[in-house]
Amino acid sequence: MSVLSSRLDPASADYQARRAAMLAKLDELSAEQAKAVAGGGPKYVERHHRRGKLSARERVELLVDPDSPFLELSPLAAWGTDFPVGASVVTGIGVVEGVECVIIASDPTVRGGASNPWTLRKTLRAMDIALENRLPLINLVESGGADLPTQKEIFIPGGRIFRDLTRLSAAGIPTIALVFGNSTAGGAYVPGMSDHVVMVKERAKVFLGGPPLVKMATGEESDDESLGGAEMHARVSGLADHLAADEHDALRIGRRIVRRLDRRKPGGPHPGGVRPPLRDEDELLGIVPEDLKIPFDPREVIVRIVDGSEFDEFKPLYGGSLVTGWATLHGHPIGILANARGVLFSEEAQKAAQFIQLADQSRTPLLFLQNTTGYMVGKDYEQNGIIKHGAMMINAVSNSTVPHLTVVMGASYGAGNYGMCGRAYDPRFLFSWPSAKSAVMGPAQLAGVLSIVARAAAEARGQAYDEEADAAMRQMVEAQIEAESLPFFLSGRLYDDGVIDPRDTRTVLGLCLSAIGNAPAPARAGFGVFRM
Q1: Do 432 and 522 sit in the same domain of this protein?
Q2: pLDDT tens column, 44-91
Q3: Cβ(120)–Cβ(154) under 8 Å?
Q4: pTM for the whole thing?
């Protein structure tokens, strides 16, 4: 492979300004992520500890192998909503007894672990990841059930959790429930539909209806233990497979269950080994301009994340606004598509479609590095077929069967978001940098379009156009679109799997590629490569 060179000058004023802007964004990111880590706050965490219980994150830490990485997913879920950042649940991929597993840990320090609409979305996303990548699923259960005031947004779609648990099991993907406390009403079906169930003695309470509800419904007098206690379920109902003495014992039993699964990974890194990039990953902080209208060379990113900084570029002299080529990352072969100058023309779209088909032929996962304003518009471009060429690219992305990974580095506007494998196109994983922005178009462009339409409507009615009102409208729309295109807002709504420090990009992608290796390669598409 060819070793990429770098033209980046870390001593330049431009680089230093970009680095300072990115570090400021990372400070904001750390502050928001700290809210999720804090759970319900010191008061509720201390009360939880006084009861002899571990926090959700402490449970995860004791479950995974010592000194192994934990790739947390969607830590900013519910950001900007009425619910706490993190959405009352911790999800991620961790290594347990050498086996990569998806872990879902309800956080009882946040409103008793009650599930709100964002908890549901975050949980379902984690279960989708387990199914796609054939990763065992471990639920660390302690939840008060649904957040009743928002039940209308939870009850009906929430049934997917139980459906997906059974589908995981039917697909041969193990499901494990470690029950530390309450698991009531619909939550009772999580252990009820898991392959393996561990309950903590005198702590776990699993029932469809608690004593008050039973009293109201049937007149029967009962208590928590006889109705749904761990010992009852271990000795009488048979719902519990293992009775744990305490939380630490439950986690030990959980690890033992995973060890006995005898999981063997079908895929793995290339036998050539893993070589670090030749350029410092720290320099990724100064690549993306704060003004996303200014283009940057994505090769400066590629040279700092791929093995040995080696990259074999495909069609380097054609369609220069899109960089395509082959590399390895942590020993895993990948194909890369990266926006160079934002706009996608017909040449770029055709180049991308052919490259994606080549990756499908060789069964090579694809990495999309997004910084796009969308497909080019204008009379000449329309007459030359930009719609059909963009459709070719989107068709290739849609029907490619190899795993896709996406990182939004800068702009992600219009149909460029689709062609570069945005969330709607189901990449296995999608992460954003703090510099990312995504919307139907840029704020100024969108406000300008609304202004033109309103002006034309006024002229058609023979009315004078209110320029002052127009200026106020444009300012309001620009502010709204800007706020709604920022990464925290989008991550809060689970349009990505997390906002990451650019310096962690190689590590995060390596963990994702490793997780993907747990699933067998999907079948090839039905056609060979069409030359564009």
Answers
A1: yes
A2: 899 999 999 999 999 999 999 999 999 999 999 999 999 999 999 999
A3: yes
A4: 0.94
